[in-house]
Amino acid sequence: MLWGESLVWDDRRERLYFVDCGANSLHWLENGEGELHTMSLTSMPAGLVPTHDGRLIACMDDGLYIVDADARLVDHLAAYPDELGDRANDACADLDGNLVTGTLNLGPAEGSAWQYSLTHGWRLLDPDIANTNGPTAFVLDGVSTLVIGDTSAQYFSYTYDAAHARVGPRQVFGDVTGLDGAPDGATLDDEAGLWCALFGGAQLGRFTSNGLDRTIEVPASNPTDVAFGGRDLDQLYVTSIGGDGELDGALLVVDGLGARGRTEPRFAL
Q1: Percent of the chain at pLDDT above 90?
Q2: CB-CB neighbours of 191 under 10 Å
Q3: Average pLDDT in the 219-238 region?
Q4: DSSP, res 107
Q5: Using an 8 Å Cβ cutoff, are 64 and 58 in contact?
Q6: Does residue 78 belong to any structural domain of this protein?
Q7: I need a surface site. Which of 6, 106, 158, 183 has the fewest CB within 10 A?
Q8: How far apart are CA 249 and CA 242, in angstroms?
Q9: Which range marks the domain in which residue 97 is found?
Q10: 143 phi, psi to nearest 5 deg
Q11: Closest listed residue to residue 219, CA positions, set 254, 261, 193
Q12: Are the CB atoms for 97 and 87 separated by under 8 Å?
């Protein structure tokens, strides 16, 4: 792949989705292996989010789109708010079925993080996120929590009121200051550990509320996203960007971590 991104495991279909941003294409593997299925799109896809009816939401150049991979159909859902900037990057669904995403910037610049729902439309969460990556909503120690990675900074956490799109003061959840690599895509395991792709660092990191828990080297210079998949959610898939290394741009899978993922939240259409 030129620029692999946006991994998501559909547990109902046992299907692994991901994109190639450089080729404007959506890919999927049944059961996470076997024949590669591909669907060409009209602009760069990012931020794949599963829906309750089995389709996907994709962040594309001019807004959110509903993608039906089986029917090879794409329908426009919503334009981005002017305040978001040029376009959105990574995305997730929260536990209430809203979508969380934010600005795509390739370097430090003005950006913001937002919530979107069919009921309320766009609502601002954080006006100071340069490049949104790895958004993840979960319950931590009984508290509704949202984590948003900023590739220009850290992985930040907030208390999160999904119904009113309100966040509390942000704190650093994943501090990458002493690590090689910058915050990119992330996924949660079933013990509230956040597994993170560290772009430029050839490694993954796992963070908990107590800080850095472990790192794992990967044979790709620029890992971009991670997702647990497989029937038992015990395989960790990794996308990457193409480069000079033999496995740069490859889709990787890591076995034997002793960790399991959680079922991916879905957007309510």
Answers
A1: 97
A2: 11
A3: 97
A4: S
A5: yes
A6: yes
A7: 106
A8: 4
A9: 4-254
A10: -115, 130
A11: 254
A12: no
Residue 194: helix, strand or coil by DSSP? strand
CA distance 200 to 121: 35
Q: For residue 41, tell me if it sits in a domain.
A: yes
Q: Residue 87: phi, psi to the nearest 5?
A: -165, 170
- Is 268 contained in some domain? no
Query: Rounded to whole angstroms, how far apart are CA atoms 156 and 261?
Result: 20
Numbers of helices and strands, H then E, in the chain? 0, 24
In Å, what is the CA distance from 92 to each residue of 30, 35, 37, 177? 21, 26, 23, 25
pTM of the shown model: 0.97
In this predicted model, what pLDDT tens digit does every residue of 164-188 receive, in sequence order? 999 999 999 999 999 999 999 999 9
- Bin 132: left if φ > 0, else alpha if -120 < ψ < 50, else beta: beta
Check if the beta carbon of residue 263 is closer than 8 Å to that of residue 89.
no
**What's the domain count of the chain?**
1
Structure tokens at 73: 């159909």
Say if 263 falls within a structural domain: no
Single-letter code of the amino acid located at 81:
P
Indicate if the pLDDT at residue 106 is higher than 90. no
Encoded tokens for 141 = 């120690």
Separation in Å, CA 133 to CA 13, 104, 142: 25, 9, 24
**What is the CATH classification number for the domain harbouring 38?**
2.120.10.30
Task: Specify whether the CB–CB gap between 44 and 61 falls below 8 A.
Answer: yes
